[in-house]
Design a protein that fits this description.
The chain has about 240 residues and is an alpha/beta fold. It has helices at about 35-40, 55-60, 85-100, 140-145, 170-200, 210-215, 230-240; strands spanning about 5-10, 10-20, 20-30, 40-45, 110-115, 115-125, 130-135, 205, 225-230. Helix 3 packs across helix 7. The longest helix has 28 residues, at about 170-200.
């Protein structure tokens, strides 16, 4: 049987395997409802959003990414590498291995993961991690505006105008849309341009649940190579596991 991998986020656990290069999701649930029979079969996990104190028994002796740092071909530019998120390490590993899978030339790349937070990491052609940053994701921005005020509603991203030119609104919903949603999209475009223009990045990987949606708004004629893959964490776990 193909090895199973667990991507534990802030609110969900995704369990999947790779079958002929394609990601096969076996389970995608919140923390409380993760199937114990599948957890016990996981070969490697990335843990971000929860303490494993309660769930660890379900995973048995399964190692995490931090347990295998000495295997990685990447030089992590963090004072304390175990403080670097395991999901960030996994997506960097998947992006690094992309060239091996496609027989492409090694280039400086950036990986941007659109989850609860948006994380960015840059790795050069020598496998040296140059550093990264963390920002609030779109859903958390909308929730913050709704939760910390009395009168601001929670808006659904799917119902927003998704208008990059939107700026001056005539009602509260539209004001949130133009300010938070459109503002977020404009920020990501400038963020990616910064990777290309200031850090010599040749290829940007977008991953996470909103990556395909974000990609629709990118002015690709102004950018170099963009690769979208929502499952880079799982691919990276597979690549780390394959190191032996």
């Amino acid at each position: 049987m193909d090895p199973l991998f667990a991507d534990i986020g802030n609110s969900t656990i995704k369990i999947a395997r790779l079958v002929n290069g394609s990601v096969d999701r076996l389970s995608y649930t919140d923390h409380q409802n993760a199937p114990k029979d599948i957890l016990s079969s996981v070969s490697l996990l990335s843990n971000v959003g929860m303490s494993l104190t309660k769930q660890r028994a379900g995973f048995g002796d399964c190692p995490s990414v931090h347990d295998l740092l000495n295997r990685l071909p990447l030089n992590l530019a963090y004072n304390h590498p175990k403080q670097l998120g395991q999901d960030r390490i996994a997506v960097m590993m998947a992006a690094w291995s992309y060239d091996n899978r496609t027989k492409s030339k090694k280039n400086t790349f950036a990986v941007i993961d659109f989850g609860s937070c948006v994380t960015t990491d840059i790795v050069n052609s020598k496998g040296e991690h140059l550093g990264g940053n963390i920002d609030l994701g779109l859903l958390w921005r909308l929730r913050a505006a709704h939760s910390f005020s009395e009168n601001l509603p929670m808006i659904d991203i799917g119902d927003s105008a998704q208008d990059l030119e939107g700026f001056l609104a005539n009602n509260t919903l539209q004001a949130l849309d133009f300010g938070i949603v459109s503002g977020f999209l404009r920020q990501q475009i400038n963020h990616i341009k910064t990777c290309f223009e200031q850090y010599g990045v040749e290829r940007v990987f977008l991953t996470g649940g909103q990556s395909s949606w974000i990609a629709k708004f990118l002015p690709k004629e102004e950018m170099r190579e963009i690769i979208v893959d929502e499952d880079l964490v799982i691919r990276g776990l597979n690549d780390i596991f394959a190191l032996g």
